[in-house]
């Protein structure tokens, strides 16, 4: 499929005003994408769990302009407060997607958004935020066209648009396991949008638990755009892309058989590889904090002592995602509360689990 196929030109009506509201979750990648090319496309495929509780709720209000102009007019409100500092990123997004949604220049918009998790908590909100906004825009488009738009096409284009705002946002439309990036072993996979993982998944990976330990709640040390850009001349980039593609092949058997030992090994390797790429880039960045390392060490010691299938993964920051099956929730959450919570900023952590994706409100 090509990008040009997502361009819409046939609108049967232009409503004067209206609104749509969606809530969309964040996600956590098991196999990471790091490095991109072209129009927000990944250098390697990735696979993620869509989360359930960590969500962004966005209402898009629209009103037809009195006179046509080439500018896209909008304001962004977060928790009821006008936030001009949020608007440059949305402006970039709108300018990337207007060719696929030509009606954008006919309207002025208000974007009202909030998170179910603390803003600036270190949990990536770009995935949930951009996907929620893309879904609102797709609902608007669906109301304007005369032909039937299937759920599959609706979600596919929403994922495609989300990617142009934030790469990982294209993995937040559906649940619970999503693949983004073309891979020879996954039919239907694409660099343009995410798809539901198409193969058998063992019951142990259903409702998989993710406790997010908020080690650092400050501003990102390095933006995702800069971080991905560092892969362009990275001395180990090509080997990393080969590794990621192999891991996508390997995880298929792991997810089918419920092999938690291999799952742990692969997921932790992916997390540490992501950070090793930043440690060896030019310029170099250390994204972990001392408490990140202490948490990892305590998880390893607890796993050896208890034989429970607990592991960690990391985003491009200091926070730790603790992953474990639902059947071991009680014992592992007790360990988190007694041994890991003290290493979090203000003792804060969030219990979440894999979920079903976005929902219209």
Question: What does this molecule look like?
Answer:
Helix content is 34%, strand content 23%. With 361 residues, it is α+β, with helices and mostly antiparallel strands. The strands form 3 sheets. Strands 1, 4, 5, 6, 7, 8, 9 and 14 form an 8-stranded mixed beta sheet that branches. Strands 11-12-10-13 form a 4-stranded antiparallel beta sheet. It is globular.
Total number of beta strands? 14
What is the overall silhouette? globular
Radius of gyration: 20 Å
CATH topology: Ribosomal Protein S5, domain 2
CATH architectural type: 2-Layer Sandwich
Estimate the helix proportion, in percent: 25-40%
Which class best fits the helix and strand makeup? alpha+beta
Task: Lay out the secondary structure.
Layout: E1 17-31, E2 36-37, E3 41-42, E4 46-64, E5 73-78, E6 81-82, H1 87-97, E7 107-115, H2 126-144, H3 151-165, E8 177-180, E9 194-196, E10 209-213, H4 224-229, H5 237-257, H6 260-279, H7 290-306, E11 311-314, E12 320-324, H8 329-340, E13 349-353, E14 359-360
Parallel strand pairs: 5-7
Antiparallel strand pairs: 1-4, 1-14, 2-3, 4-7, 4-8, 5-6, 8-9, 10-12, 10-13, 11-12
Helix pairs in contact: 2-3, 5-6
Key phrases:
Ribosomal Protein S5, domain 2; eight-stranded mixed β-sheet; four-stranded antiparallel β-sheet; 8 helices; 14 strands; 34% helix; globular
Quick structural overview:
With 361 residues, the protein is an alpha+beta fold. Helix content is 34%, strand content 23%. The two termini are 30 Å apart.
């Amino acid at each position: 499929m090509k990008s040009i196929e997502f361009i819409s030109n046939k609108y049967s009506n232009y409503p004067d005003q209206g609104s749509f509201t969606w809530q969309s979750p964040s996600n956590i990648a098991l196999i990471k994408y790091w490095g991109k090319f072209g129009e927000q496309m990944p250098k390697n495929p990735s696979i993620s769990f869509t989360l359930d509780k960590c969500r962004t709720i966005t209402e898009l209000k629209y009103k037809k302009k009195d006179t046509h102009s080439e500018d896209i007019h909008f304001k962004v409100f977060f928790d009821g407060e006008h936030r001009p500092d949020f608007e440059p990123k949305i402006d970039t997004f709108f300018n990337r997607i207007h060719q696929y949604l030509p009606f954008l220049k006919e309207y002025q918009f208000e974007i009202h958004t909030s998170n179910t998790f603390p803003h600036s908590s270190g949990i990536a909100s770009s995935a949930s935020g951009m996907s929620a906004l893309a879904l609102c825009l797709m609902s608007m488009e669906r109301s304007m066209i005369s032909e039937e738009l299937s759920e599959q096409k609706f979600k596919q284009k929403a994922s495609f648009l989300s990617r142009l705002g934030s790469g990982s946002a294209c993995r937040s439309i559906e649940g619970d396991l999503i693949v983004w990036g073309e891979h020879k072993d996954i039919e239907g996979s694409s660099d343009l949008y995410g798809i539901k993982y198409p193969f058998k998944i063992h019951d142990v990976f259903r409702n998989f638990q993710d406790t997010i330990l908020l080690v650092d709640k400050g501003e990102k040390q390095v933006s995702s755009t800069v971080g991905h850009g560092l892969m362009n001349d990275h001395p180990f980039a090509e080997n990393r892309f080969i590794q990621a593609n192999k891991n996508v092949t390997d995880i298929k058997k792991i997810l089918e058989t419920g092999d938690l030992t291999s799952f742990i090994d692969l997921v932790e390797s992916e997390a540490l590889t992501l950070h090793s790429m930043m440690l060896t880039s030019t310029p170099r960045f250390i994204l972990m904090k001392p408490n990140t390392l202490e948490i990892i060490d305590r998880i390893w010691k607890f796993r050896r002592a208890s034989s429970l299938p607990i592991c960690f993964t990391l985003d491009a920051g200091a926070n730790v995602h603790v992953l474990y099956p639902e059947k071991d929730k009680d014992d592992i959450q007790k360990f988190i509360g007694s041994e890991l919570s003290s290493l979090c900023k203000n003792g804060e952590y969030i219990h979440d689990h894999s979920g079903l994706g976005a929902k219209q409100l």
